[in-house]
Write a structure and sequence with these properties.
This protein is α+β, with helices and mostly antiparallel strands. The chain is 42% helix and 11% strand. It has helices spanning 3-18, 23-30, 36-39, 43-62, 66-70, 76-90, 96-118, 127-136, 152-158, 210-216, 246-256, 308-314, and strands at 172-173, 186-190, 205-209, 231-235, 239-243, 275-278, 290-293, 305-306, 315-316.
């Protein structure tokens, strides 16, 4: 760690925040490279998700997708014409064949977004699909996003063998609070959301617990969540701590998919439920301070659990 780089970066942020509508301050901040220490252990996730956001913004700055979504007579050739016009204007001295080549790459991506917007119909998940997904999940069916092991009640309801709902546990994880029976049910999740063109076919379907399925929803990016924490919760073992955004927890655990204990723990999400806890125990669990652990290596193995009603009472928004 190079303290001078971190301190200089934070000082520039402080100046920008003091005059947040000043272009000079924001330009000065943008000229600085974010130190690796600031982006944390999962900086690759934060940078990768940010790049996808910028990429979509750029594509939609070239082509407004709204007319293409509403008018089925407009096709990919119309998209290409708009993208190519931009390249011709922005890079008139580049070879024509290269302009066309690169325009086609952007066109393909833009058309993928158009098709996703046009095809948002959620098809029925058939009994045969459910049976196939259940068979594929054997011998140890778990939520593919967090590793949660499905209980017998959830299994019976999912397979149509019983109408009983799972019982809300007496203690819940405050970072992943399954406080309702539906949170422990088995849901069929679209890996690529329907809203983004995901198909209702088994290659794009997985089994997820109700909590993860509801948090993931149509989101695919850590920046889809608001950039501040959910609130403050007071726990018996920890005192007052920041409750992280649910999507921060979900996205980090679901992409890392393994215990990050320094001793090289072999536990993966396919083997057991994984938990989020801060790497620096003195800091809040923001996206730059989230660690992923199995139950054995979880630094909050005891402290994270609290009664559902007590959690509701303890949470300060």
């Amino acid at each position: 760690m190079q303290p001078q780089h971190v301190a200089g970066f934070i000082a520039e942020i402080q100046k920008a925040l003091a005059s947040n509508w000043s272009d000079e301050r924001l330009k000065a901040l943008s000229d600085r490279t974010v130190p690796e220490e600031v982006s944390g252990q999962h900086g690759w996730l934060l940078r990768g998700d940010l790049s996808t956001v910028w990429g979509r913004w750029f594509i939609e700055s070239l082509v407004d997708l709204a007319p293409f979504q509403l008018d089925s007579n407009l096709n990919i050739a119309h998209v290409h014409a708009q993208v190519l016009a931009h390249f011709n204007q922005a890079s008139p001295h580049s070879p024509k064949d290269e302009r066309d080549k690169y325009a086609r790459i952007l066109t393909d991506f833009a058309w993928q977004l158009v098709q996703a917007r046009r095809d948002r119909k959620r098809l029925t998940i058939t009994v045969a699909m459910r049976d196939e997904l259940w068979a594929q999940a054997q011998p140890d069916p778990r939520c593919y996003l967090c590793g949660y092991e499905f209980g017998s009640e959830a299994r019976g309801k999912f397979l149509g063998e019983s109408g009983d709902l799972p019982i809300v546990p007496s203690l819940v994880d405050f970072t992943r609070p399954r406080t309702r029976p539906a949170h422990a049910c088995i849901e069929v999740d679209h890996v690529t959301p329907v809203a983004q063109g995901g198909k209702t076919e088994t290659f794009n379907l997985r089994l997820a617990c109700g909590w993860c399925n509801s948090v993931k929803n149509r989101y695919t990016n850590i920046y889809d969540a608001i950039p501040w924490a959910s609130g403050i919760v007071t726990l018996p073992e920890l005192g007052a701590v920041t409750q992280p955004q649910a999507l921060w927890v979900l996205r980090t655990v679901a992409t890392r998919r393994r215990c990050e204990s320094p001793d090289g723990c072999p536990v993966r999400i396919e083997d057991a439920e994984l938990f989020a806890a801060p790497r620096n125990p003195k800091g809040a669990m923001t996206p730059v301070n989230v660690g992923v652990y199995c139950q054995q290596h979880d630094p909050w193995a005891v402290a994270r659990w609290i009664g559902p009603q007590r959690l509701a009472d303890a949470l300060v928004k």
